[in-house]
Design a protein that fits this description.
Layout (H helix, E strand, L loop, with lengths): L1 E5 L3 H10 L9 E5 L2 H11 L3 E5 L7 H11 L4 E6 L4 H9 L4 E4 L4 H39 L27 E10 L6 H17 L3 E7 L3 E7 L6 H15 L5 E6 L3 E2 L4 H15 L6 E4 L17 H10 L3 H16 L6 H21 L31 H9 L4 H21 L2 H16 L7 H8 L3 H12 L3 H17 L6 H7 L5 H12 L3 H7 L5
Parallel strand pairs: 1-2, 1-3, 3-4, 4-5, 9-11
Antiparallel strand pairs: 6-8, 6-9, 6-10, 7-8
Amino acid sequence: MKLLIVDDEKLTREGLMNSIDWKSIGISSVTQADDGIHGCDVALSFHPDIILSDIRMPRMDGIEMAEKLQNANPFLSIIFMSGFSDKEYLKAAIRLKAVSYVEKPIDLEEIKDAVREACLRVTESKRAASSHALSLSHSRSMLASALISAPGGESELPEWNELDFSFPIDDKTPFFTFLIRFYHNAPMQEELSGSITSLVNRLLSGQRLKEIHAARQDFLIFFHVWGFTDYDDRRKKALGGLIESSLRQMDLHYHLVFGKNVKGAAQIYDSYYSAVIELQNAFFTRENTCCIYQNTDSRSAFPEISSLNTNEKLAGLLSQKNTAAVNALMQDTFDLLLSQHNILPNQVRDFYYKLFTAVEDAYYALHISPDNFAGNNSGSYQGAPPNATAPGLAESSGSLWEAISNCSSIYTLHDLLLEKIRLFFLQAEKNTESNSSIYLIKKFIADHYMEETLSIKVISEHVFLSTSYLCTLFKNETGQTLNQYLTDFRIEKAKKLLRDPRYRITDISAQVGYSDGNYFGKIFKKSAGMSPSEYRDGYGGTV
């Protein structure tokens, strides 16, 4: 709490400043002024919670100063001091709801008690105001959400006459709804959501427009707007530009969509759903753009996407490593999709999913590891299209489909595909004979590690390389000797088996290519830093 002491007597001001341990009674900061005019000036920058003021002062008395400051800050608590028994001043103090009226000469204990009471009053007033504001905000949000249900729906509208804010209930007031759909963010935090709605409210208030708003699923905020007589598409576009300019500072990814104008609150649902329809079209525009609902029919018929066979054409061109032809095919396909207005975003996503799997198939055909193919998106999206899993996608299809689903527009989706194709050609260029040999070596080890007879000589014969060249190639390409790689591979397999108590250690030894259990134990301890039995005990003998 902050305290401002106002008195024209310097001795009184400084005596109060220095004679009381203010922090012990809840005051964190204290300052002073020598009359009412200076008191008003100091309050503008100091923002006191409590004012301890003399009543009779030159230029501006304490009553006039308190009236001015309470108009600016309704939570301000006043304590008056006076050496005069003046009934008119007492009446004014009561009218201003002063916490206390302290007579001079001042009793410091009386001042302390008055300040403590003032601190409690300020705290209670702010708490009550905050609770009221929260209740009002909740009521507005409840109404905004209820208004998007069509008449006869399950949601019931609150009794408007019971809501503590002005809302037009006639059937003639014009309304429109606009929504902001956010992407690439975790569920929106309450603080960020509050900043966005406050920002939008200020922009609307600047145009003398009123709104109520609500959020859905932590990534969409919608606003119902009224207070206008004619708000055409040109004005919506201008408002959209103001919102875009303000949101740009927050580094957000979104689409801003305006619904059509309607008359009467009962028709607001129609404006909302026209905005939702337009949001489908926003998929075909870039992020951070404004779209306005247009009630127009589809401009042309679009052939079945599956009949284009683009994924088959892409697979053939990738196998030929024909960069120019692939780029031309992708550009033509993108232009064709972009020119149509009667296809749904999920149709496009499913179409691109098949293109992504065609690229991954090309990776496998060239023995290039596609471990990072699905992107860096994590999660467990369960909406991948049925029967869409390509060879090798069994473990990554969920994250791949999630990455595709999270693309906010056809532009970001197409850019993601082009990036995967670029990486394919980049790795294909590096796919020299040595890379293919390393792939074959590792695959052969994975298939035959359990055989005791597996050796460098056996591996070299399989890949048609001399043993000396094989060892040199593997060390240069992987930074690890071939013998060490084989040992590490076997030990990792042994560790997995050791976690299952059903297997005996001697059986595990044989299963990973070691017929001599003692030798296996030495190799295991050297690699893992403990014996096989110690390793098993550490895992509690569980799978």
